[in-house]
Design brief:
Residues 1-19 form the signal peptide. This is TNFR-Cys domain-containing protein. Keywords: Membrane, Signal, Transmembrane, Transmembrane helix. The chain is built from two helices and eleven strands. Residues 1-9, 11-23, 47-52 and 124-132 have low confidence and may be disordered. Helices cover 38% and strands 27% of the residues. The longest helix has 57 residues, at 136-192. The strands form two sheets. Strands 1-2-4-6-8-10-11 form a seven-stranded mixed sheet, with no helix packed on it. Strands 3-5-7-9 form a four-stranded parallel sheet, with no helix packed on it.
Length: 194
């Protein structure tokens, strides 16, 4: 049930995020958005209103003012206390450094790194996020199996219809043959009588 609630909230957040531009860039240095997000939540990085988007998003909060960061840029960094970070599937590298508190991290990026207090997270103090991710290879295999099953079913159906037609032809042939042999016997009887 918790997973369902999390998925619905994520869907609503993503729907809202796709329509809004990047918020709260305190500075932009060579296509890098630097955020501090004081008393603003959620922070969004990577969604822009124009054609260009930031290649790197870097969010740093020295207090607990950062709560949620959703990133879709090429590279995403977050350094925070008691916060949540989400990286979409288009991200190459996603890194969260949790300084204190119960941080959570949802990462669909190509490479994900999470540190807690300067070391790798033991995941006891990290909030688990439920998400089912089916790799595209499995989806392709399932699509291939579905196509093969469909083709084989269609082929079996065609063979069964063909057999039914042949069965009807054989039955008709045997009826005609038995009727013709009966007629031949009747004709031979008629010829002998006169």
């Amino acid at each position: 049930m918790f997973c369902l609630v999390v998925l619905v909230v994520e869907f609503l957040l993503l729907t809202k995020l796709k329509a809004s531009p990047t918020e709260n860039c305190n500075a932009v240095v060579s296509s890098t958005c630097l955020q501090q997000c004081r008393n603003r939540s959620p922070c969004r990085c990577g969604f822009t209103s124009g054609d260009s988007r930031y290649t790197t998003c870097n969010q740093t909060c020295h207090d607990s003012s950062c709560k949620i960061m959703t990133c879709s840029s090429g590279t995403c960094f977050q350094q925070c206390h008691d916060c949540h970070m989400e990286c979409t599937s288009g991200v190459d590298f996603c890194s969260q450094r949790c300084l204190s508190g119960a941080c959570s991290f949802v990462c669909e990026a190509k490479r994900c790194v999470q540190e807690c207090k300067g070391q790798e997270c033991d995941h006891e103090h990290v909030t688990p996020i439920c998400r089912t991710i089916i790799p595209s290879v499995y989806l392709l295999v399932l699509a291939g199996l579905f196509a093969a099953t469909t083709i084989l079913s269609f082929w079996a159906l065609m063979l069964s219809f063909r057999e039914m037609k042949n069965w009807d032809r054989r039955e008709t042939y045997f009826r005609v043959k038995s009727n013709s042999s009966s007629l031949d016997s009747l004709c031979s009887v008629d010829l002998k009588d006169p």
